[in-house]
Amino acid sequence: MARSDFIIELQALGYTVEDRGDGRLCFPFTVPVGKCTGQAVLLGFLVQDDFPLAPPGGPHFSPHLLPINTNGGEHPLASVHPSPFGESWQYWSRPMHHWGQTKKKAKDVLAHVLRLLETL
């Protein structure tokens, strides 16, 4: 399995995925939970060819949902970085430490993002 499997899984969930090269994938996403409910964003991930052995890194959002704060610390306000997706993007360093306890699917990655968004 590889990055293409992640794309296929997202497409099966109804998302239109754009491959921006260098492992960068993104798609339109409407935030369904938390203080940003209803906000339309682009949600992105850096997905390596070893998916699902390793999960994508934390989510990338455009436009920004949180202030940039590169200091470490607790979610939600810490570890929010500029993103390699571009200037209007931000990266949330929120690793999926529980990846081994999931089915290692795109829907598990999205569930992780939803938990993050619920706790803003």
Can you characterise this structure?
The protein is of the alpha+beta class and 120 residues long. Helices cover 19% and strands 25% of the residues. Strands 1-2-3-4-6-5 form a six-stranded antiparallel sheet, with no helix packed on it. It is globular.
> What is the molecular shape?
globular
The chain-level structural class is alpha+beta
Order of helices and strands: HEEEEEEH
Assembly type of the chains comes to single chain
DSSP helix fraction: 10-25%
The strands making up the biggest β-sheet line up spatially as 1-2-3-4-6-5
- Rg (C-alpha, Å): 13 Å
Give average pLDDT, whole number: 96
CATH class: Alpha Beta
**Unreliable residue stretches:** none
Tally of alpha and pi helices:
2
- Domains (count): 1
- Report the span from N to C terminus: 33 Å
Query: What is the third-level CATH name, the topology?
Result: Ubiquitin Conjugating Enzyme
Largest sheet: 6 strands, antiparallel
Indicate the CATH architecture: Roll
Assess the beta-strand content as a share of residues: 25-35%
Would you count the extended β strands for me? 6
